[in-house]
Amino acid sequence: MTDPRKPIFESIKAARNGAGFSVAEVGLIDRLLDQLNVLRLEHGIQLHPSKACLDLIKRFEGCKLTAYKCPAGVWTVGWGATGPNIVQGTRWTQEQADARLEEDVRRFSFGVSRSIDGAATSQNEFDALVSLAYNIGLGAFGGSTLLKLHRAGDKVAAGNQFVRWNKAGGRVLDGLSRRREAEANLYRGRA
Description:
This protein folds into 2 domains: 1-39; 48-60 and 97-187, Lysozyme (Orthogonal Bundle), CATH 1.10.530.40. The chain is 55% helix and 7% strand. The chain is mainly alpha-helical. The chain has helices at residues 6-15, 23-36, 51-61, 94-116, 123-136, 138-142, 145-152, 155-161, 174-187, and strands spanning 64-69, 75-78, 167-168, 171-172. A hairpin with a 5-residue loop joins strand 1 (64-69) and strand 2 (75-78). The chain has 9 helices and 4 strands, in the order αααββαααααββα.
């Protein structure tokens, strides 16, 4: 599936005399397009994350208002937010953390919707996929065997793939193992 945002980015790039985009600029443009509802999915109805999805993310991310290094060595703040502006000493209010969670879940929801490419997806499956993508990133999610199996309709095999994503920094982490089990159970409708 061709990314429906590509022509918009190409137009902006042309207006900037061919200048490329930083990661922060891509995120900003994506968030703006999401807020404006400029694009609709080409296939079916776009699902939106349910309370079960948000609860699962919150349960496993926790909320810390002062930046810390996660087990993968990435500066993190709020409900698991990362990015170029999150560095040692970053402090947020609860309102900032909650707003960023809402923004990030919306962005990951759209990314997962695009990635599943119209495959039949239940609400539970979608929620589990959004939680996974929120944690591992859309790039890793987009290239995953789990996603390929889901798109092919092999839901049993896709559900079995969650456990493979339980490492950070090359080490198996108990917290990630518990999260993947919870996501797999949600995916299978057993949450």
